[in-house]
Amino acid sequence: MTIRPFSDALREKIVSSVKRIAQGIVQGAGVPEDRIPVVSVYGSGLALYNDPEPTKRITRVFRETFGKENVIDPGRIMGSEDFANFGTVEPKILLTYFAIGVIDPKVYKARVKEDKLPPSPHNPHFAPSLS
Fold it and tell me: For the chain, which terminus, N or C, has the lower number of CB atoms within 10 Å?
């Protein structure tokens, strides 16, 4: 199972809850000790935090360069990205993660109107604009 919480604290709460629920199901079903499943966590991405100051600067430059109408803030997204690891080193690195869109602006606006983000590159419905 993949979990993508917005904070490390929430990740820990979800993992401990899954383990607790699994244990409750096992006990309720009377599973013998030698058959109890093990809940393991294999790797985990950190919550990515965009530092406000460099994010404001890069957003301003992008709007000046590409046009305000071509720079959007999709809000919080449930991504899974190892880029966040760069923010855990000393000296501290201020992070700003951005994506370059490849969707037709009309399609994007229609999706937003439906309150849906367009499919991302790892989605089988991903359809970049080729024009």
Answer: C
